[in-house]
Amino acid sequence: MGAGASIEDISEDLKNHLLKKDEIDAYLLTFFRFEDHADTNGQITFGKLSTLLKDKYDVFLTHDWGAPGTNDANHVRVIDICQRLEKKYIKCWLDHELMENNIHETMIEGIDASNAVVVFITPRYIEKVGGTYEGDNCKLEFKYAARVKTSAKMLGVVMEDSVRSPQCWKGPVGFILGGDIYVDFVSEEDLAMEKQIEELLSRIMSKLGGTTIRKALESMAQRITKGENMMMLSPSPSQTQSQPFVSPHSPPPKQSQAILAASRLEEMEEYRDVFGIAEFLEDGYTLQEVYLSGFFPLKEFIDSYCTIPQLLDMGVELSELKAAGCSAKQLLDSGIDKSMLKKLGYLKTEYNTVEEMKAKLNVAQLLKFGFTYIYICIRKH
């Protein structure tokens, strides 16, 4: 599954526009070797570029369909998540229909053609990957993805309450993903789903480097059509407004309210005294818009609406998170680098000694502070 940019939908002029290597978005170049397809002048057409990317994907979705008698319940949920991601410009590979011929070859091609891998974690998936049957599809997908993509390009999504704790992830799943932050998709309520999708989208975009195949192609097409300098490939705010977040390098929200369209801000002003965050979201505003409006305190977003990675993607500063009451543990769990926490003074204010730190933090968190496995094992016993 996965809709790509259709070559039939673009004009002949755009299709035949020649591109040099440094005029192509760096993300798109991760999918093919430019030199193998360029002409003698070191160029390829936009049409050829689109064709090369037709069977490439942003993410490969690996999952177990569900236990017998459940009507493929887990598979149905993953299909729903996939369709929601596709609407957000994430091109997904998913075995939407049971594969009957050359199953293993098809899986290998799908993983090779994808930039990252999303692993939907359930008890059955963990059991299959860690089981003795070497021919199991989940086991083969996970092992191959771990080998060729590594954990840096893999993202866990927990689907059932019984596996919310990574300590339950026995075998290869725990070994590869147990130390990373996962996305929680246990709740199936509609309101929770919207928040979950936004967090998953944010985490996927982080793995992809901030763009997708479709967004990168459309951004290039817009620049070609407008005759702009193709050496400048960073998307502008107007090109990314469909996303519910902005780059982590954007200016702090207090200085960037201009990102909101004036008309949208005026509409929100009209209801600021009667609407809470939930009402604005139900009325169609994004989390980014509601936060940038400045109507509500940061702590309210932290407590009920956003994960820390989402807030960072929306331009919130670490110092603001600290001022709002975020602990070092929360930031560590969100993947914040240890050096940043030291600069913010967390070690001084929350942990008076190394021993106190070791008593309060788990192994994964201690590793982020620079301790070795051997040191941790010796001092923990």
Summarize this entry quickly.
Helices cover 45% and strands 8% of the residues. The protein has 21 helices and seven strands. A five-stranded parallel sheet has the order 4-3-5-6-7, sandwiched between helices.
Written description of the protein model:
Helix 4 packs parallel to helix 6 (137-148). The protein is 45% helix and 8% strand. It folds into 4 domains: 7-54 and 211-239, no CATH class; 57-208, Rossmann fold; 244-326, no CATH class; 333-381, no CATH class. The chain is α/β, with parallel strands linked by helices and 381 residues long. The radius of gyration is 23 Å and the shape is globular. The protein has helices spanning 12-15, 46-52, 73-87, 103-112, 123-129, 137-148, 172-177, 190-208, 213-226, 262-271, 277-282, 287-292, 298-304, 308-313, 318-323, 328-333, 338-343, 346-350, 354-360, 363-368, 373-380, and strands at residues 18-20, 43-45, 57-62, 92-93, 114-121, 154-158, 183-184.
